[in-house]
Amino acid sequence: MRYVARMEATSLLRAAPGGAILDVWVVPGASRTEIKGVHGGALRVRVASPPAGGEANRALVRYLGEQLGCKVRLVAGASSRRKAVHIGCVDLAWITASLGLESQ
Questions:
Q1: CA 38 vs CA 52, 53, 59, 90: distances in Å
Q2: Which of 17, 58, 69, 79 has most Cβ atoms within 10 angstroms of its Cβ?
Q3: Model-level pTM?
Q4: pLDDT at position 96, please?
């Protein structure tokens, strides 16, 4: 997993009622699902699923939920590569560390 500088990480993730909002740039149809740094002020996540029928959105939510161990839901960008997801964990420092968004 590629690490993102802390200053960039804090602009990607912000507190929200019941958790946090994470800005994500999704690249569907990749060879595997993984976090690949930052693109345009959002966490870049490659997903193996195609964009058709919302499969990439479901794969993104499932992947982030597995990585964090908490509920994740899409709140904006259903038909766009740039999305916002709500993460149902309230500890921003823990979310940042779990996603590898801290500097080494």
A1: 24, 25, 19, 22
A2: 58
A3: 0.84
A4: 84
